[in-house]
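Below is the record:
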Amino acid sequence: MTMIYSAPHNHSTIGSWASLIAKTINSYGLDSHAIFKREGVNLDSLKDNNARIDNVKMNNIWLQAQELSNDPYISLGLANCMEPCVLDALGISLSVSQHVYDALKRITRFSDYLNDGMNIFLNENKDDIALLFETKTQAYEMASVNTEATCSAIFNLLKKISGKYFKVKAIHFRHAFNLDINPYEEFYNCPVYFSSKSDQIIFEHKGVLDENCFSNSSLTRKVDEWLDEYLINHGNNLTSNKVKSYLLKQHQLENIEQQEVAEYLNISIRMLQRKLKEEGTSYTKLLDECRQKMAYKFIRDENISLAQLTSILGFAEQTNFTRAFKRWSGTTPHQYRTHKVH
């Protein structure tokens, strides 16, 4: 029996991702239009520009597809149909990223474009790099097949831009799986673990910095600017988006405190913190995201010194800015400016 989600919801996924799921459903001889219609979704409407689908409905569609196809490995079938265009503008930007590491940074930066109910972030250490996935709210869990499909699709997309040394070290899923895991391990060419503490893809350092022969920094810059603008304008009902919109409209982020933002939104600081927590984020995280966006915007302008940029972004010391920028981009502001501008 399929479990149907009915929890309160505000979050959504890009329509093109749902269209890929429909294509996967049709490959089993099933009627995708009928399955989507049960959730009140007209498949044809997802072809509209910037169309999105409610995450709860997306979960229920996935669960029905898995049950009706009688295929526990349906998420792997979806990955084989994965092309950059499925992720719209984000897919274009990923396909022309400088290397896999650059693409990973871009995935975390624009994860809300793909699914604004899911946090995607990197965890780096000297041994490996992990791409982690988690839902923003506790009202409901993302269907395990949906999580699997997201991981397998991103993996396939990264393979297309990687060099010959690209290697995934391990895959971890939080949900249990009691059937044969060989199809997963053959697909990822690495160990796959279930009932883990987190959902994540762990990459070896070797290969993630291999140059993508189709990289195009001019194109990524233009598309990234469009994605930034989209995320500011999309989902204005979310408090987190209102906060980001306010911060990004400021000429500089120095001395902007939560109190000022709360007053702008006509709510108390405590209410602001509670609403952001419900959306799976915090003022500190949003400020960091806005600093990152503004840093990428101004770093190419050589008329703005790094000291001035430090002040614009609200860092007390240039060393703090350098440390943050290296966390965002993997390189220092000076190195990034030299490479991207010259």
In short: The chain has two domains: 12-204, 236-341. The first helix runs from residue 15 to 26. Residues 224 and 240 are 20 Å apart (CA to CA). Strands lie at 12-14, 52-54, 118-124, 128-135, 168-172, 192-193, 199-204.
